[in-house]
Specification:
The complex is a heterodimer of chains A (311) and B (421). With 311 residues, chain A is of the alpha/beta class. Helix content of chain A is 37%, strand content 28%. In chain A, strand 7, helix 6 and strand 8 form a beta-alpha-beta unit. In chain A, helix 3 (93-103) crosses helix 4 (108-122) and helix 3 (93-103) packs parallel to helix 5. By secondary structure, chain B is mostly helical. The chains are: A alpha/beta (311), B mainly alpha (421).
Chain lengths: 311, 421
């Protein structure tokens, strides 16, 4: 039996199906990734797994506890790092941790011990007595994570934990997740940053429009794209005419535009690139840079949905 | 334990917000200083006119009148019965008292001696006057009780000059009873149902300031849940093993403590800096204020279910609290308001708290005079808490049907969803 079992989970808001018949399992000790663009339904899914939201239908089983009858038991097993910073800004980091520890039933010397450990993990021992509102975004994120670790949860659920932070804090967080996982903690990691999911997760569910559109190990998912490469072409300007011409080329699997860059998936990168350059020359579109990537989760998503992850 | 932790950290958060904390103290204190000072001046110059008809004319009733006349707050006129009625009707005197013909006889026999009260309508000064009369009456009973006991026991002692001793004894008792410390002794021995205190006009304004400003603190404090939703901690609290009822109890207790911190500091400032007399029965005051705090916490929780943000709650509170405090007769005597407003006033917690506090602090009346206000405030509190539960459920249903889809699209649902389970 898997550590977490999600069976046919659905949740609607009016006519909108936020989560649509989602099923997957998470094994003990793995880092499981939920990858999808903003609004794909990841947060709704997480809210249901963490007992915050009632599903319309389906079952959630965590460590053999079925939700609704055993929410309190499930809450003891789970540690959630919410997408937004969920801390009291006028309290110090230590006070915040003491408060959240008490809410998980910790007291006395055990609480103090866990608070010290959490501060150590966050790398903020020296700033423990500073108010959270004096922290940088990255430091707040780290305390936000530390608050979820106090009760040593069986499963750490991280909902987009690196949104809007500096690279240094991001690296610290990713390294922390890996370290916790190596110590045996199961992690569910949601992100729309393909690189993070690829770096951390052993298995990944790709979510779009409330559905799991692909599920498997990273290699299994990449096989869905075949031997395709991704051409990243940065242009001074793009037009629909250029896009249509590129889409019409033989050997082009899909084309999208992300942050001004053309993303072209093709099994024949060299040949297609020459033709694209020719089109751009005719259309008088200047090239800033060209980069050829081998298949990754981003290209898997593009292949499956025809859209880039950050569209 | 978790309830205490939630309350404790709520209190710390309040103390950390230094600007709000200073405003919380400065505003009521400024109110007491400005309006209390003005009120003190006006009461100091103008005495309350009171008419008394003494049908008894005995030494005891005359002694009672002399005692009442000693109080500088009242301007006593001795009138015949018809004139007294006319003067009350024409509002020439605030209140009239008739000392019945058998007054001294009943006192001597140890029976209840009733004094008839004549008044036009409820007056803000009534409890003050009643307090002064009770005080005088209590002193009289002590004096008379002592004298009659000595008369009884010394008349058979040879060589004792009763005629000389009794007047001297009366003077000594009078002199000693004028000392405030002896009021407590007086109450416990003879009149524990008639606790009394000197009238302090500043106390009236202090009560009004406390009732209004603590209501702001508590109502806005009860809206702390909205703030928790804003900083996303409400959602995080909802997924801890701490039950929703424990969290709510912690919040209520925290709000209660915040209110008491404000009240205690304002009362201490009033007492030691402004010289406000908070009366002799702190227990009555503590009970009444505690119940009032619970009641307005319920009101705050209910109001917070009607709005989405703390800013909205602040805007509504400013209107609701200021208006209802005025209507409840905290700023001026209820007589100044139209009859319909006087009837509406009883719907507001400030009315009952003001009534109870005026009775106990200003009037120095006994604990029995706060029973009704306490019970009504408790009842109102229960209703407000029940409404807040119903209001919260209604709000969640409304959100489910209307606003969730938008939340999903934003991809940021934690704060919104937190109230669902």
């Amino acid at each position: 039996m898997s550590y977490i079992e999600i069976k046919n989970l659905s949740k609607s808001y009016g006519n909108l199906k936020a989560v649509d018949d989602v099923s997957f399992n998470v094994e003990k000790g793995e880092v499981f990734g939920l990858l999808g663009p903003n609004g794909a339904g990841k947060s709704t899914l997480i809210s249901m797994i963490t007992t915050l939201l009632k599903p319309d239908s389906g079952d959630i089983i965590v460590d053999e506890y079925t939700m609704n009858g055993n929410n309190s038991e499930i809450r003891k097993i789970l540690g959630l790092v919410p997408q937004e910073i969920a801390l009291y800004p006028t309290l110090t980091a230590k006070e915040n941790l003491v408060f959240w520890g008490r809410m998980y039933g910790l007291r006395g010397s055990l609480l103090n011990e866990r608070v010290d450990e959490a501060l150590e993990i966050a790398g903020l021992v020296d700033r423990a007595k500073d108010r959270v509102d004096s922290y940088s975004g990255g430091m707040k994120r780290r305390i936000n994570i530390a608050a979820a670790l106090l009760h040593k949860p069986g499963v750490l659920i991280m909902d987009e934990p690196t949104v809007g932070i500096d690279p240094q804090s991001r690296n610290h967080i990713l390294e922390t997740v890996l370290k916790l996982n190596m110590e045996g903690m199961t992690v569910i990691y949601t992100s729309h940053y393909m690189e993070e999911v690829e770096f951390l997760c052993s298995r990944v569910a790709i979510v779009d429009h409330g559905k799991v559109i692909a599920l498997g190990t990273k290699d299994e998912l990449k096989k869905l794209v075949g031997d395709n490469d991704t051409l990243n072409i940065e242009l001074t300007s793009t037009s629909n005419k250029v896009l249509d011409k590129i889409k019409g080329l033989n050997g082009v699997d899909s084309v999208s535009v992300e942050e001004g860059k053309l993303k072209v998936i093709t099994p024949e990168a060299d040949m297609v690139l020459a033709r694209i350059i020719s089109i751009l020359d005719i259309e008088k579109s200047k090239i800033h840079s060209v980069n050829i990537e081998q298949s990754n989760l981003e290209s898997v998503f593009l292949h499956l949905t025809g859209r880039a992850l950050r569209d | 334990m978790k309830i205490f932790s939630i309350a404790k950290f709520d209190l710390i958060k309040m103390l950390r917000d230094k600007t709000s904390f200073v405003i919380m103290l400065v505003l009521p204190i400024a109110f007491i200083v400005i309006f209390g000072g003005l009120a003190g001046g006006s009461y100091g110059d103008t005495k309350i006119p009171v008419g008394i008809t003494n049908l008894d004319k005995s030494r005891i009733s005359t002694s009672l009148l002399d005692e009442i006349k000693k109080d500088n707050t009242l301007e006593i006129s001795e009138l015949d019965k018809d004139t007294l009625y006319d003067k009350v009707k024409n509002a020439n005197v605030e209140i009239g008292f008739v000392i019945p013909g058998d007054f001294s006889q009943k006192i001597t026999e140890g029976k209840d001696a009733e004094i008839q009260t004549i008044k036009l309508s409820e007056s803000a000064d009534y409890s003050v006057i009643q307090g002064i009369i009770n005080n005088a009456f209590t002193k009289l009973r002590l004096k008379e009780g002592t004298i009659s006991y000595l008369e009884e026991n010394m008349k058979n002692i040879p060589g004792t000059d009763i005629e000389k001793i009794i007047p001297e004894l009366g003077k000594i008792i009078d002199a000693n009873l004028s000392k405030p410390e002896l009021i407590t002794v007086n109450e416990t021995k003879f009149a524990d149902k008639n606790k009394t205190t000197d009238y302090d006009p500043k106390a009236n304004m202090s009560i009004s300031a406390i009732l209004m400003f603590v209501m702001y603190t508590v109502v806005l404090g009860a809206g702390d849940i909205l703030e928790e939703k804003k900083v996303n901690t409400w959602g995080r609290l909802s997924i801890t093993p701490t039950s929703r009822s424990t969290v709510i109890c912690g919040k209520v207790f925290g709000t209660f403590l915040k209110g008491w911190v404000q009240i205690a500091l304002v009362m201490l400032f009033g007492k030691f800096v402004m010289g406000v007399n908070w009366g002799t029965s702190m227990l009555d005051t503590i009970i009444l204020i505690s119940v009032y705090l619970l009641c307005v916490t319920g009101l705050g929780m209910f109001m917070s279910t009607l709005v989405k943000t703390n800013a909205q709650l602040g805007a509504i509170s400013a209107i609701v609290i200021t208006a209802t405090t005025m209507l409840a007769g905290c700023y001026w005597p209820l007589d100044f308001e139209p009859v319909i407003m006087q009837k509406i006033a009883v719907l507001f917690p400030q009315y009952w708290a003001n009534l109870g506090l005026t009775n106990t602090v200003v009037g120095g009346l006994g604990i029995e005079t706060i029973v009704t206000p306490v019970l009504i405030l408790l009842g109102m509190g229960v209703v407000y808490f029940a409404l807040s539960v119903l209001g919260g459920r209604f709000k969640v249903e409304a959100k489910r049907s209307v606003k969730k889809a938008a939340a999903v699209k934003r991809g940021s649902e934690l704060g919104v969803q937190s109230s669902e389970i």
